Amino acid sequence: MRRSALVSGIVVLILFALAIGIWYAVISEDRGGKLTVSFLNVGQGDAIFIDAPSGRQALIDGGRGRVVLRELARASPWWDRSIDVVVATHPDLDHIGGLPDVLARYRVGLVMRSSVLDEGSADSAAFDAAADAEAKQGAALLVAKRGQIIDLGGGASMEVLYPDRDVSGVETNAGSIVARLVYGETAFMLTGDAPQAIEEYLALLDGKELHSNVLKAGHHGSKTSSSELFIGFVSPEYAVFSRGCDNSYGHPHAEVVALFKRFEIPALDTCKDGAITFVSDGTTVRRR
């Protein structure tokens, strides 16, 4: 009898623990109609994690190495081992270096990349091999081109603004994907390392339609990006520098910091602030 009671008690405890786990998962999965965008702290590099109201998730770039896995573990539930969309804006190490580990660890539905090439790069080859391996497991591969819209569900979508042509022969930064994430009346401008020439080209193409609540400052705050014309049309409430402390490039450059100050745009910095997260309800964006 004692043994039977003990077994019954253990079973009850297991069932109780399972019930708690299930309810915790349900509560955690309820986005409450909110879009969450996190600029992860991966040092000198980019990694942006998007959690849509539908529960679909996207990762844009993955920094230099495995640190992105740690950041993803903090940004998403421990049991979640899937990412719907992974985007490699261009094949520089500080953007794709961590993506092979992400593709190996997570089930991915779609891998998007630019047509720009970095021939002879071991890091680019490693990413290509990881993407091909993911495709064999059922992932779709897509080369980015202007006009493509990735539906993240729940009213959130990501539109590719650039490249608008084959960019296989250009310098890698000039072939970087530029995308605008939209949810309701709110938007996030995600620029990769696009230089000023591309920014100004988009300003001529899209003008006021570039307006976004949050701007990821191009190229980690380098003076090669963040043109006055482009910033004027985007007119963000916040800018974000995704960069490492004491980096050898001097990012963000003093000229760019001064420019955002002149435009009275608060500039946040992953070096100083760690991961930077925004939440949109479709009408307004607030920092969490």
Automatic annotation (TrEMBL):
<dbReference type="InterPro" id="IPR036866">
    <property type="entry name" value="RibonucZ/Hydroxyglut_hydro"/>
</dbReference>
<protein>
    <recommendedName>
        <fullName>Metallo-beta-lactamase domain-containing protein</fullName>
    </recommendedName>
</protein>
<dbReference type="InterPro" id="IPR035681">
    <property type="entry name" value="ComA-like_MBL"/>
</dbReference>
<feature type="domain" description="Metallo-beta-lactamase">
    <location>
        <begin position="44"/>
        <end position="243"/>
    </location>
</feature>
<dbReference type="Pfam" id="PF00753">
    <property type="entry name" value="Lactamase_B"/>
</dbReference>
<dbReference type="InterPro" id="IPR001279">
    <property type="entry name" value="Metallo-B-lactamas"/>
</dbReference>
<dbReference type="InterPro" id="IPR052159">
    <property type="entry name" value="Competence_DNA_uptake"/>
</dbReference>
